Amino acid sequence: MIDYIKSNFIREEKIKIQGIPAIIFRPIKVEEPIPTIIFYHGWSSNKELQRLRGFILSSVGYQVVIPDAIYHGERSRLNDYSWDMAKEYFWDVIFRNLDEFNIIVRELVSKYSADSKRIAVMGNSMGGFTAGGIFTHNKNVKTLVVFNGSCGWENFNNNIEKPIDKVLRERYDIIEKKVKDMDPMNYLNLLKNRPILLMHGDSDNVVPVKSQKDFYNKLNLLYEDNDKIKFVEYTNLNHFVTTNMMEESINWLGRYL
Q1: Which residues of 84-108 are buried (b: 16+ CB within 10 A; e: fewer)?
Q2: Is 114 helix (H, G, I), strand (E, B) or coil?
Q3: Under a CB-based contact definition with an 8 Å cutoff, are residues 207 and 239 in contact?
Q4: Model pLDDT for residues 57-84, shown as the tens digit of each residue
Q5: What residue ranges define each of the domains in the chain, with the CATH number in brackets?
């Protein structure tokens, strides 16, 4: 955990939003209501491990909230975060994040002066899947930024080995149907002409870039203004968030949030 972030200009606070543990970063001198970013962490991560990113984003004038996802951080952590555990819990976490989003927004607006008309969602890896789903199914979210995730859920899921055990397979089939039903790729009409920034390493061996690239190529054809959708592919980059990605995000948010 990073414990050395200090600033006279940004207030950091641990909060609970209807029982959901989160960290909030807020510029001390800022005009209210405040443009607000909800940032979702990846599989096996937690809110504390994303603090530096929250601090960087807040330093340019945004309120940033980083919640712990279920089974992470302060919320019933798993014993391990192996690939087998990911296959069992990954989508449960994402769908729980989607269910909790409006709870978080309502409290940010009512208690923390968030501007309801200037909400952005961001996320890395699993958090990028989450952010993509939230943005798709919440038309009032102003912009989306995804690091190393996928908005082509079914496409990504097709590459996951299915369980052999009958009980696990039945459960997986239920999840697979929900993935298909909520997949952003199946709701391109809800996304066209809305500001979307996607960033991904071309050598990502955790979330292969192909499903995100396929999503971008299909959605991009629908845009009347192609400046509002951008896909940046980083050469020889594996599953990491880089300084360049953070800079690209800040530039994007400056235009669209």
Answers
A1: eebbbbbbebbbbbbebbeebbebb
A2: strand
A3: yes
A4: 999 999 999 999 999 999 999 999 998 8
A5: 10-256 (3.40.50.1820)
